[in-house]
């Protein structure tokens, strides 16, 4: 324990502080890494919540002790992925989320005995609106709905009753749009749930302010709302019908059909009267027959007698017949009324008739497999002209082809671009990993790599440098022994090496020696004598010993630098000690 305390004290305050900072950094890094690795994988529980629903759900999660995360301004809640299904069922048992509206559970929280009929009616209306909004929100593409119902009350002694109506605003998911079929479905759903409400009384508006439904116009029998929608609907119906029929012969996904139709939306009413002269019929016949007779009497002066008053037949051979003039006239009149046959024809040409239709059919060819095993390949073969002709005839009959309208049909065989040309091709599923799993794995791998690099490239050198005092090494590679204070141990050799530069300096400071060095007259013997004199001086010789220049003989041509190098060669141990001392001074 004492040795540990001594080692800590030997480090000094600066090294202790640096060591603490490094250790704290390492511990914090591993804490973050461990927390990240051990934290549960979060998944979406609910999204696009109302603030009221979000608050109730988070309170319920806190009471259950379930960790959660809030995103999207508090409207999106994430929980551990392995608890999503269970939590959704638990929330459903508590009626969450409500979607921002109340349903029939409203009556579970009210006291029916203390409420008036007016409040009961209002609560019933609110509950009905809330239930309809929840039901509409379950439709795909619709994330939320808000329903307003107007249910007029029939007043007493009133003969007229106002019609019920509904206004619905829909929030569509993303950039999707509702087609006419889905709009009609919502209208039918609401009208069936509200007594006295007809589908045309339901108005739908999306969250962008677009009107999705219009009241039915009796002058618009198409019922499509717009001309473009009716045309698109007709083209889609023909396309789906043709593709479904041809796929039964060429295979699923081997045919593509495009339909372009020109429709006539003019509504024409024609009234005509046709007469048939050859079709005479006696409607009525009237006959009149008239006969008139008159006689002028003859005889004695027109006297009146019995014979004159007798009928003509009786008087002709009568005794008393006398002469006279008889007049007789008759008239027959017949009137026949004939009626000529007439045909009154009223013809109405409804809108939406086909003026022209064009169909393009693209068909893939057939494929044969050549080879076996890994060498198997799919070989494309085009379809025969006879087969294409049969398909064209089939399309012609299906669409009601009329050449006089300018209808066109094109059937073309071309190879489809596919990803599964290789029979052994298997689509990669990412080892059953979801996108979130792959992102999390990449994040953890990145943190691990960064941590390893930080440990080996940064922390390890710093720790080694802080914890290990700078060890002094001699020029020959041997470590230098240090004392308890961290100072190098000085022996006799070291003392001599440390003091040798001073001794040599003292020897070289002699004017005669300086003159000899400058003139190049310092020979080997003289240089050796200088070193020996310095060493002898350090070992106990006189400090005033000087070189006797009278003993120097001969001349050399080498300069003083060469002589110093030779001195080092002749006395390697002393030179090493000197250089070691210089290194200590630098450190």
- Note poorly predicted spans: 215-224, 315-322, 421-430, 470-478, 490-500, 541-559
Largest sheet: 3 strands, antiparallel
Average pLDDT metric: 72
Distance between the termini: 31 Å
- Tell me the CATH architecture of one domain: 2-Layer Sandwich
Attribute tags:
22% strand, three-stranded antiparallel β-sheet, alpha+beta, 587 residues, elongated, 15 helices
Q: Can I get a quick summary?
A:
With 587 residues, the chain is α+β, with helices and mostly antiparallel strands. The chain is built from 15 helices and 13 strands.
Q: How does this structure look, described?
A:
The protein is of the alpha+beta class and 587 residues long. Among the domains are: 104-216, ANL, C-terminal domain (GMP Synthetase, Chain A, domain 3, 2-Layer Sandwich); 492-586, no CATH class. The protein has helices spanning 2-38, 51-64, 84-93, 117-137, 180-193, 227-250, 306-309, 312-316, 385-399, 435-467, 492-508, 511-519, 524-538, 560-570, 572-586, and strands at residues 42-46, 69-71, 76-80, 142-150, 165-172, 202-206, 255-264, 268-297, 324-349, 353-363, 366-370, 377-381, 408-413. The strands form 5 sheets. The protein has a 3-stranded antiparallel sheet, covered by helices on one side. Strands 4-5-6 form a 3-stranded mixed sheet. Helix 1 (2-38) packs antiparallel against helix 10, helix 11 (492-508) packs across helix 15 (572-586) and helix 13 (524-538) crosses helix 14 (560-570). The protein is elongated.
């Amino acid at each position: 324990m004492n040795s540990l305390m001594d080692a800590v004290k030997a480090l000094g305050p600066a090294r202790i502080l640096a060591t603490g900072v490094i250790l704290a950094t390492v511990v914090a890094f591993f804490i973050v890494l461990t927390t990240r690795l051990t934290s549960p994988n979060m998944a979406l529980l609910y999204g696009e919540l109302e603030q009221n629903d979000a608050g109730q759900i988070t309170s319920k999660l806190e009471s259950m002790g379930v960790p959660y995360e809030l995103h999207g301004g508090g409207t999106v809640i994430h929980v551990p992925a392995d608890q999503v299904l269970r939590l959704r069922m638990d929330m459903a048992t508590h009626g969450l989320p409500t979607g921002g509206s109340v349903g029939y559970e409203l009556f579970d929280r009210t006291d029916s005995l203390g409420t008036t009929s007016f409040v009961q009616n209002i609560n019933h209306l609110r509950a009905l609106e809330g239930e309809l909004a929840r039901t509409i929100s379950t439709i795909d593409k619709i994330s939320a709905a808000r329903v307003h119902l107007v249910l007029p009350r029939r007043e007493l002694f009133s003969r007229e009753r106002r019609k019920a109506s509904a206004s619905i605003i829909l929030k569509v998911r993303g950039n999707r749009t509702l087609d006419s079929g889905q709009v009609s479905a919502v209208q039918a759903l609401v009208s069936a749930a509200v007594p006295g409400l007809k589908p045309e009384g339901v108005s739908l508006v999306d969250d962008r302010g677009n009107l999705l439904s219009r009241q039915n116009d009796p002058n618009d029998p198409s019922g499509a709302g717009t001309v473009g929608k009716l045309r698109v609907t007709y083209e889609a119906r023909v396309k789906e019908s043709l593709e479904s029929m041809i796929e039964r012969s060429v295979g699923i996904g081997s045919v593509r059909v495009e339909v372009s139709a020109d429709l006539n939306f003019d509504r024409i009413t024609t009234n005509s009267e046709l007469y048939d002269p050859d079709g005479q019929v006696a409607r009525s016949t009237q006959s009149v027959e008239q006969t008139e007779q008159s006689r002028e009497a003859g005889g004695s002066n027109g006297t009146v007698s019995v014979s004159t008053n007798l009928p003509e037949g009786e008087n002709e051979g009568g005794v008393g017949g006398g002469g006279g003039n008889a007049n007789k006239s008759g008239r027959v009149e017949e009137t026949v009324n004939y009626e000529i046959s007439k045909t009154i024809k009223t013809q109405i040409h409804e809108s939406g008739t086909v003026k022209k239709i064009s169909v393009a059919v693209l068909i893939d060819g057939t494929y044969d497999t050549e080879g076996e095993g890994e060498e198997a390949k799919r070989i494309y073969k085009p379809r025969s002209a006879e087969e294409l002709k049969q398909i064209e005839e089939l399309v012609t009959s299906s669409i009601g082809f009329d050449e006089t309208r300018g209808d066109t049909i094109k059937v073309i065989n071309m190879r489809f671009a596919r990803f599964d040309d290789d029979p052994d091709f298997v689509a990669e599923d990412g080892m059953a990993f979801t996108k979130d799993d792959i992102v999390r794995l990449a994040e953890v791998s990145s943190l691990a790599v960064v941590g390893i690099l930080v440990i080996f490239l940064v922390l390890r050198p710093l720790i080694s440098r802080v914890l290990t005092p700078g060890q002094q090494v001699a020029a020959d590679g041997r470590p230098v022994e240090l004392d308890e204070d961290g100072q190098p141990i000085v022996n006799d050799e070291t003392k001599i090496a440390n003091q040798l530069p001073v001794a040599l300096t003292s020897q070289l400071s002699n004017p005669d020696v300086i003159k000899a060095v400058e003139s190049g007259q310092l020979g080997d013997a003289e240089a050796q004598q200088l070193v020996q004199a310095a060493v002898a001086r350090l070992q106990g010789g006189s400090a005033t010993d000087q070189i006797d220049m009278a003993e120097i003989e001969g001349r050399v041509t080498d300069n003083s630098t060469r002589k110093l190098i030779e001195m080092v060669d002749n006395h390697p141990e002393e030179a090493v000690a000197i250089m070691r001392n210089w290194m200590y001074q630098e450190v």
